[in-house]
Amino acid sequence: MKHYLEANHKTVHWGFLSAEINPVLNINSGDEVEITSVSGPPEVTKNSPYEVKETLLEIHEKSVRGTLQGGHMCTGPIGVHGSKSGDVIEIEILSIELDSDWAYTGVAPLKGALPDDFNSRQMSYLEIDRHRKIAKTPWNMEVDLDPFFGLIATAPPMEWGRLSTVPPRQNGGNMDNKELKVGTTLYLPVFENGAMVSIGDGHGTQGDGEICTAAVEMDMRGKFKITNRSDMEITWPIAENNDYFITMAFDPDLDECVKITTREMINFLSEFCGLTRPDAYTLLSYVGDLRITQVVNGNKGVHLMIPKKYFHKTFKK
Which conformational region is residue 131 in: left (phi greater than 0), alpha (psi within -120 to 50 degrees), or beta? Predict the structure, then answer.
């Protein structure tokens, strides 16, 4: 079955993730869902030289912001019938489309990879050419767009309480991993019955690191096939595309991220691909690529990619 979920003040939760948020849509495992997402708090849109969607203005007026000033507008949650704690949610990214004619990126004191180097705020507004998939910067440069959703999450455990959307965690969230684009399948641990999938933070494009703390932030539209997997067990997000398996980890310490994502890949290669742990560890030195996902969200991110051609396997059903 196919569903459509538009981002508006009734379907968006703003700036927080929680197991206590009621689903705005319930689906069966294997259903497809098309969603829209919006970006831009009032402090961005009030100065925008471009037209702002009425639905976004209604969200500003009628929705409650979460635990902190800031945070992301998340479409959802989407409940999945039959999904229970300990399962895994498989999210196949079928399509992503640019859904606005402008975007923004902000620089602010105490943020980004260089929190002490910039003492004033600057908001950059970009014109989006959807047909050419180009963003035009204020300094007259054209940037190629390669869109993805920065935030895809299941509900955190009830015991974690109400959390800011900014730091990514084991349930996914604000991962800002540019590999999560069309053709990629993401796997997330399920902590609460129904899984409660939320999606948002549309990025027109972003480099690894998300260095100044924001990407090309804009409205987005995407289609996803969401399947419950009771035959899998994972503790951190994993993804795959046609060419790579990808493990991910998030922690305030980048060194700890490296350890977690490397251990997760060794476990994966041992359990799923039949390698001994020492052989898997050795293979990672040959063909594994460690990449910095982002360094600006409190919990930093590292992802490890290994070519699938050595295994000819897939997680997907």
Answer: alpha
Residue 72: other Cβ atoms inside 10 A: 28
Tokens 């635990």 found at: 67
Q: What is the DSSP code (8-state) at residue 202? A: E
Enumerate domains of the chain plus CATH numbers. 2-229 (2.60.120.580), 238-310 (3.10.28.20)
Cα–Cα distance measured from residue 258 to residue 248, given in angstroms and rounded to the nearest whole number? 9
Q: In 10 A of CB 311, how many CB atoms? A: 14
Tokens at residue 251, please? 């922690």
Q: What is the pLDDT of residues 267-311, one digit of tens each?
A: 999 999 999 999 999 999 999 999 999 999 999 999 999 999 998
pLDDT for 41-54, tens place per residue?
A: 999 999 999 999 99
Identity of the amino acid at 62: K
Order of strands, edge to edge, in the sheet holding 300-307? Answer: 2-5, 31-37, 220-229, 88-98, 185-189, 238-240, 244-251, 300-307, 289-294
Rg, Å, the chain Cα set: 19
DSSP state of 64: P
- In angstroms, the CA 83 to CA 194 distance is 5
Torsion of Cα atoms, 26 then 179 then 256 then 210, to 10°: -100
Burial per residue of 96-111, b for 16 or more beta-carbon CB atoms within 10 angstroms, e otherwise = bebbbebbbbbbbeee
